[in-house]
Amino acid sequence: MTIKRILIIDDDADIREATQICLEITGEWDVLTASSGSEGLIKAAAEKPDAILLDIMMPGMDGLTTFQNLQDNPETQNIPIILLTAKAQSAEQRQFTRLKVAAVITKPYDPFSLSDQVAEALVEKL
């Protein structure tokens, strides 16, 4: 299995670190991180990861705005995006399913199954 690169965009340092460790240990991912939407846009364009894990609720540029910017950029528009969200209400879930995202993973997530959830979401994309 080849090493895959994933970019985590999340403003919470603890979540970034825990997610990175889970993906590196259980899924053999090469993990990049960004602490804001704007930093994530720059890293995504520069590094061209195989996938992006994107938090929805962030200060400044939120996840949906970041997602739209990624979609609008020809350099990043084909990178599969998985949304990480604490918003589990059915109205929000419907909104997310209308977006062209690979999957929506609800926080808090099980760190031991996260890598499998990501792999499953990307099975046709990678």
Characterise the protein shown here.
With 126 residues, the protein is an alpha/beta fold. The chain has one domain (4-122): Rossmann fold (3-Layer(aba) Sandwich). Helix content is 45%, strand content 21%. It contains 5 helices and 5 strands. Strands 2-1-3-4-5 form a 5-stranded parallel beta sheet, sandwiched between helices. β4, α4 and β5 form a beta-alpha-beta unit. The termini are close together. The model has no long low-confidence stretch (mean pLDDT 88). Residues 5-122 form the Response regulatory domain. InterPro entries: Bact_response_regulator, CheY-like_superfamily, Sig_transdc_resp-reg_receiver. It comes from Thermocoleostomius sinensis A174. This is Response regulator.
The CATH class assignment is Alpha Beta
Distance N terminus to C terminus? 12 Å
Strand content: 15-25%
Radius of gyration: 13 Å
CATH architecture designation: 3-Layer(aba) Sandwich
Strand ordering within the main sheet: 2-1-3-4-5
Could you give a short account of the major beta sheet? Answer: 5 strands, parallel
Bin the helical content. 40-55%
Q: Which superfamily, in CATH terms, is the homologous superfamily?
A: Response regulator
Describe, in short, the structure shown:
The chain has 126 residues and is an alpha/beta fold. The chain has helices at residues 13-27, 37-47, 63-72, 90-98, 111-122; strands at residues 4-9, 29-34, 51-55, 81-85, 103-106. It has a single domain, classed as 3-Layer(aba) Sandwich (Rossmann fold).
Topology:
Layout: E1 4-9, H1 13-27, E2 29-34, H2 37-47, E3 51-55, H3 63-72, E4 81-85, H4 90-98, E5 103-106, H5 111-122
Parallel strand pairs: 1-2, 1-3, 3-4, 4-5
Helix pairs in contact: 1-5, 2-3
